[in-house]
C-alpha cells in the first residue's frame, strides 16, 4: 500500500483506509483515502516522467519491420524481443506457447470468366517512399482466414454491404443469390457476417472489396499523397464466426496446450462453409462494371466510376480457395510483478502483437505504448515501489485471426483467473485524437477519474473533457441521431466521459464475456488517419509516422491513461469498483426493451396493414421487378417485470454500498470487501450462456450475432425479441434477473464487510 494511513485513537489502534469518494470527484480517488490518493497521484507523476515518445517510435520501427502474422519468423522474433525487454525492466517474464489451427493460403484464384476474361492479381505493389511496403516476402497475400475451401464458378450478385437489410432489399427486387457468388463491400458490419449471411441465403462464394467511397479516394487523398487506401490496397481479415465463439476452433472452451484433445475440422462451429476472398477496389471494378440487372439503389452506390448494378444472371466469376489447415505456434509473453500485500488479486493488462502484414497501427501502436508502461513501472519498482496487488502484463499473439492467444491463455488459466483477477485492461490500435473507451459498468468511475488526470497534448484540456466536447459537438450537428443526442445529454448530466458497451473484436472478450472478469478497452483516435490502410501491406511504420500519430505523442498519452488505471487498480485499498452506474444503465436498457417490443408490434401491424391494402403493389414501378416484404409476427405481451424488480433491488444495494464506501474502514475490512467485489462481475454470467452460443456467458453485454464487433446489451433478451423468439425472450428475462440478483447479493456482502 502507498501513502500514509490515518490511525484510530482507539486502543486497538486499527489501521484505517478509505474506500473512496463518489465516481468523478477528482479530489478523492476511488478506493483510496485522501492521503493515499495524493500519494498515488505523486507516484503517477513519477510514472509519467519515465515515458518516452522516442522509445515508442524506435520500438515500432523495429517491430513493424517485417511481416508479422501468426507463424511468421518475425512474429516469433518480436515475442523474443518483448520477453527480453520485460526481463531487462525487472519483470518476472516468460513465454507461454499454444498450438492452434491457423489456415494459410495454398491456392487462391479469382477470375472473371464472362463476358470477358480477367484474373485478379491479389497482391499489393510497393508504394514509392514507403520502404517497408517493399519487404513483403513471407507475408500473406489477399486472405480471409477461416473461410471454406472451394472451387466454384457462378454468376455474380452485388449485395452492397451484405447485411440483413441488403438481402431484404434484394428480395424485393426479385434477385436471389442462391447458387451465385456475391460481391460485397467492406463496412456497415463485421466482415465475417458477409460470407455467413451469403451462405445462409444460398450463395456459393463471397468476394469482399474496399470501395473508395468508404476508405479510399472518396474519403481522402490516396496513399502516398494522403492517408486513404490506394488502388491496390487489400483489407485482409478473419471471417471466423467469433460472435458464436472465440479462440482456436478445434479446442472449444479449453486451452490449446500440448496434448489437448482436438475436435474434427468438420465439427468446428466457427469455420465458414463457402470460399471467401478480399480484393482491392482496383480489382473490384473489373467484376462490378460488367454487371447488369437492376440499377443498385442509391445508398448502395460507391465511388467507383461506374453505374452500380445488382447483377444476377450475367457475368460469372471463378473462385478457388484451398488452404493449409495446419497448426501454428502462438507465443504469448506474460510478465508478472508480484503484489506486496495482496498477491492473489491480479490486475491484468494486455495488447496483442501479431498483425496481418506489418501491423504498425494495428496492433503495434498499442503494443509499443503498453511496453512503455511496463518499462516505467519497472523503473518505479527498481526505485522501491511495489504494487499492493499483482500486476500481469500480457503481449498476446494470434488476436487477428480470432482472439487466439488471449482466449487460449484465459481458458487454460480459467479457474485461477476467476479466483484472482480483479480487472482486465485492454488496448489495441492507437492514433492521434480522442479517447474512446468501452468498459464494464462497475469500472466507469475508474475510467473517468483516470481520464480526468491525463492532459491532452494538443489542447489545455484533459482527455476526458476533450472527449466530452467532441461528443457534444457531434450531437449538435444537423442530422445527428436521437441516440447520439441522448448519449451526449446523459454524459453532460453526469459530467463523465462517455463509455461504450463491450462487444467484441479485441482481447477483452474471453475475460469479460466468457470468464466474467470486469474489463476496460481503450485507445485514442479520430484525428489520426490509419483507417485507409487497415489490415493491408500499407499499415507500415512510414504511413503511421506520417498520418497515424506524428511525433508518437498519443502513444505516450495512451500509456499515461492505461498506466493510471493499472496503478490505481493495483494500489487501491478497496477494489475500485462502483455499482450505481451498473444499476442505472441496466434500468435504461430495460426501458429500451419495452420500447423495442412496442416498436416491433407497431411495425408488424403497419406492414400487415399495407399488405392488406395492396399498397406495395400500387407504389411499385411496374417497369421494375419488385415485390412486397414478408408479413411479420405481431409481438405478444412480454412481462419485463422480473428485470425491473431485480434492477430496483440492485439500485438500492448500489446506493447502500456507496454510502458504506464513503466512510473510513479498517485494513481488514478493505481486504474482505475487495475479495468479495472481485466476484461481482462473475455473478453476472450464467452457465447457460447465450442462445446458440454458450461460450458467451455474460448476460449484460456480448457481441451481437448480426453486429459482430458491436455490443448487444441484455443480449439474451434483446436478440430474442429482435428475432421474434418470444419463449426464448421469456426464458432469458428470468435468467438475466437471476444474475442481477446474484450480483446484488455480492454487493450486499461487500457493503456488510465495509460496515462491520
> Quick check: average pLDDT?
93
Q: Level of helix content?
A: 25-40%
Shape: globular
Give the distance, in angstroms, between the N- and C-terminal Cα atoms.
Answer: 22 Å
* Strand segment tally: 21
Strand order of the largest sheet: 3-13-15-14-16-18-17
Count the helices. How many?
Answer: 24
Strand proportion: 15-25%
Radius of gyration: 26 Å
SS-derived structural category: alpha/beta
Low-pLDDT ranges: 1-16, 18-25
Largest sheet: 7 strands, mixed
What is this entry, summarized?
This protein is of the alpha/beta class and 756 residues long.
Give the SSE map.
Layout: E1 6-7, E2 15-18, H1 34-49, H2 53-63, H3 73-88, E3 92-101, E4 104-114, E5 118-119, E6 144-145, E7 150-158, H4 164-173, E8 181-185, H5 193-200, E9 205-209, H6 212-215, E10 237-238, E11 276-279, H7 281-288, E12 311-324, E13 327-337, E14 342-352, H8 360-382, E15 389-396, H9 399-402, H10 404-412, H11 414-420, E16 421-427, E17 433-439, H12 444-452, H13 463-476, H14 482-494, H15 509-514, E18 519-526, H16 541-548, H17 553-571, H18 580-612, H19 615-619, H20 641-661, E19 664-666, H21 667-677, H22 680-683, E20 701-703, E21 711-713, H23 715-722, H24 726-755
